[in-house]
């Protein structure tokens, strides 16, 4: 007889997941679809130099995150300040987002805008580190998969709602005013106001987490607070101990860094391929993005429920295998209809892969060290974040065809799949069948 599933506080789960919904304001609207495009195509006049500058700024942000994320997570765990850390960096992300309203449509504002965008990326990622670690506080071992999947789905759905509001309220139309709000397009005002709207969205929907989810107790009560150098020393000692105690955690961090880079590249280059290869009209790319978020959210929810029965590794393996197969079909497919059909199948499996990757680590993490490990999770991901974009560009250059760039992404996903194969899954899940 199957044991009953331990209950969780649904109010806390919802409050926790609403942070994912809130952070879509930065990740989906500011960084992916709206403000990064405004900076390169508007403020930067669409020049290659502007796109290169964006790459430099994001590369610098990635380096800062790689250096700070594990220490931030480790200190938050040790001092019992996980929620405080999430709140601090969330507040910084909101301020950075709102500050983008000052970036006028003038080339002189390109680098100030990029600095704000990079700073926002850093603090949003640092907030995500402690937020991910809080997953253990709102779930049980038997429900961590569905709770994580619910959070990812909320992030996707939040992006959908806000993207639609932004498109119809602030962007749509071709006249001197934009959207149903009738905002002036002069000096980029309609896009700059989007930054304020995103900041308000982030603030309002992040609040329930801090009101409803309690702080975690310190792992080292009464210990003196370490300085930055002391934190790195403690981190190094913990890593050595972790490698000796359970090497699969270290191996998983490496494998997940590879396939997560491939997952990120799917969204990064998807719009470029949609227009340049499959004939999607530029105005329809946002609509595909909305549909893709809906499908990815459904995938995350379905994958979370399956994971609580079979464990995270099979979900990740099946998802990666399916994405590789569909990407190979897209490599030879043509036309908008086939792109819509197979593109949506592809993103359906992105959600489960992302969610189960998070829960794989959450199940492996020793109690009280979740923040430190999710900091390393962020760091290892950033360490190879150049790989998929570089291989995409390399194959485009070799074959002089945008379509060929898909091969680069497939290779990264395949490398992540092969690296994950020998990694032993977390121990048996309470109430689930053995995972092997």
TrEMBL record:
Localization: Cell membrane
Stretches assigned to the Major facilitator superfamily (MFS) profile domain: 1-428
The name this protein goes by in its record: MFS transporter
Organism superkingdom: Bacteria
Membrane topology value: Multi-pass membrane protein
Keywords attached to this entry: Membrane, Transmembrane, Transmembrane helix, Transport
One family name in Pfam for this protein: ATG22
Residues annotated as transmembrane: 21-40, 52-72, 84-103, 109-129, 150-171, 191-211, 257-279, 285-303, 315-333, 373-398, 404-423
Main location: membrane
InterPro entries attached to this UniProt entry: Atg22-like, ATG22/LtaA_families, MFS_dom, MFS_trans_sf
């Amino acid at each position: 007889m199957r044991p009953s599933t331990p209950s969780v506080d649904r109010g806390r789960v919802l409050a926790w997941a609403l942070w994912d919904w809130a952070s879509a304001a930065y990740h989906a609207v500011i960084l992916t679809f709206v403000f990064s495009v405004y900076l390169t195509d508007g403020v930067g006049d669409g020049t290659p130099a502007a796109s290169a500058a964006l790459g430099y700024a994001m590369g610098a942000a990635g380096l800062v995150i790689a250096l700070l994320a594990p220490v931030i997570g480790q200190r938050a765990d040790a001092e019992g300040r996980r929620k405080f850390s999430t709140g601090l960096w969330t507040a910084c992300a909101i301020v950075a987002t709102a500050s983008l309203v000052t970036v006028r449509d003038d080339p002189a504002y390109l680098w100030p805008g990029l600095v704000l965008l990079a700073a926002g990326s850093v603090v949003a990622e640092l907030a995500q580190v402690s937020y991910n670690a809080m997953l253990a506080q709102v779930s049980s071992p038997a429900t961590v998969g569905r709770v994580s999947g619910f959070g990812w789905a909320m992030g996707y759905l939040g992006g959908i709602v806000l993207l639609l509001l932004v498109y119809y309220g602030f962007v749509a139309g071709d006249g001197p005013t934009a959207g149903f709000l009738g905002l002036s397009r002069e000096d980029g005002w309609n896009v700059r106001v989007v930054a304020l709207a995103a900041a308000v969205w982030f603030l309002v929907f992040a609040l329930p987490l801090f009101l409803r989810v309690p702080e975690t107790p310190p792992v080292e009560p009464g210990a003196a607070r370490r300085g930055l150098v002391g934190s790195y020393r403690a981190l190094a000692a913990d890593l050595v101990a972790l490698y000796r105690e359970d090497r699969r955690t270290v191996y998983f961090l490496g494998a997940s860094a590879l396939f997560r880079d491939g997952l990120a590249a799917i969204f990064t280059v998807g719009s470029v391929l949609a227009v340049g290869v499959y004939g999607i009209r530029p105005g329809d790319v946002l609509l595909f993005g909305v549909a893709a978020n809906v499908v990815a959210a459904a995938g995350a929810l379905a994958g979370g429920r399956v994971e609580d029965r079979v464990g995270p590794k099979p979900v990740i393996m099946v998802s990666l295998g399916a994405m590789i197969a569909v990407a190979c079909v897209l490599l030879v497919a043509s036309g908008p209809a086939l792109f819509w059909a197979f593109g949506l199948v592809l993103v359906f499996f992105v959600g489960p892969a992302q969610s189960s990757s998070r829960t794989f680590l959450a199940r492996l993490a020793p109690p009280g060290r979740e923040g430190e490990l999710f900091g390393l999770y962020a760091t290892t991901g950033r360490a190879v974040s150049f790989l998929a974009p570089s291989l995409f560009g390399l194959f485009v250059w070799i074959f002089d065809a945008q379509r060929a760039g898909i091969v680069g992404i497939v290779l990264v996903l395949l490398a992540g799949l092969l690296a994950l194969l020998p990694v032993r899954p977390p121990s048996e899940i309470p109430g689930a069948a053995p995972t092997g």
